[in-house]
Amino acid sequence: MKLENTMVIVADLGELKVYGVKKSEAVVSNEMKESYALEAVNNIAYIDAHKKISEVVSDSAGNFAGSTAEDHNREIERKKRSLKDVANDIDLIVENEKPKQLFLAFPKESLSKLQDTLSQNTKSLLTKTIASNLVKTDKNRVLSHFK
């Protein structure tokens, strides 16, 4: 698998990690061997996504205000906004870094929504997607999930 100029993005609604693939060559037992490792390019934390709805919305006295239905609607809107933020950041990173191909891992419950939100340019570079949250996975193990 050719991985030159490949970008790997692992994200969820709270964090986005961007890696570039670095190729190494070494002679092993008189044979040239290639190996690939990830190099951190960017890491973005979405602070608002980590907050509880009660920390985001309060009345003028600082007390939590709203009904359960309103809370649910606010939570849905917050998730939509977070998803859009992640998609916009991925689009900007792809535009700036100009990879030839893109690997993406995102939680299963939101992957298709994220893909729908990405720009056509970013979608055209998506070579592999994984419906999994790999944000907390050690970077030395991330690439193995895409093989």
3D structure, described in words:
The protein has a single domain, classed as Nucleotidyltransferase, domain 5 (2-Layer Sandwich), CATH 3.30.420. 39% of the residues lie in helices and 32% in strands. The chain is an alpha/beta fold and 147 residues long. About 10% of the residues have low confidence.
Provide tags for this entry.
alpha/beta; 39% helix; 32% strand; Nucleotidyltransferase, domain 5; 147 residues; five-stranded mixed sheet
The ordered H/E elements are EEEHHHEHHEH
The largest sheet has its strands arranged as: 3-2-1-4-5
Tally of individual domains: 1
Q: Based on DSSP secondary structure assignment, what is the total number of beta strands?
A: 5
H/I helix tally? 6
Which ranges are low-confidence, i.e. pLDDT below 50, for 5 or more consecutive residues?
50-63
Give the second-level CATH assignment, the architecture: 2-Layer Sandwich
Estimate the global geometry from the Cα principal axes: elongated
Distance N terminus to C terminus? 9 Å
Proportion of residues in helical segments: 25-40%
Mean pLDDT: 87
Find the structural class using helix and strand composition: alpha/beta
**Taking Cα atoms only, what radius of gyration do you get, to the nearest Å?**
19 Å
Q: Per CATH, what is the topology? A: Nucleotidyltransferase, domain 5
Largest sheet: 5 strands, mixed
The percentage of residues in β strands lies in: 25-35%
- CATH class, named Alpha Beta
Q: SSE layout and pairings?
A:
Blueprint: E1 6-11, E2 15-28, E3 31-45, H1 47-50, H2 53-56, H3 68-97, E4 101-106, H4 108-117, H5 120-125, E5 126-131, H6 139-142
Parallel strand pairs: 1-4, 4-5
Antiparallel strand pairs: 1-2, 2-3
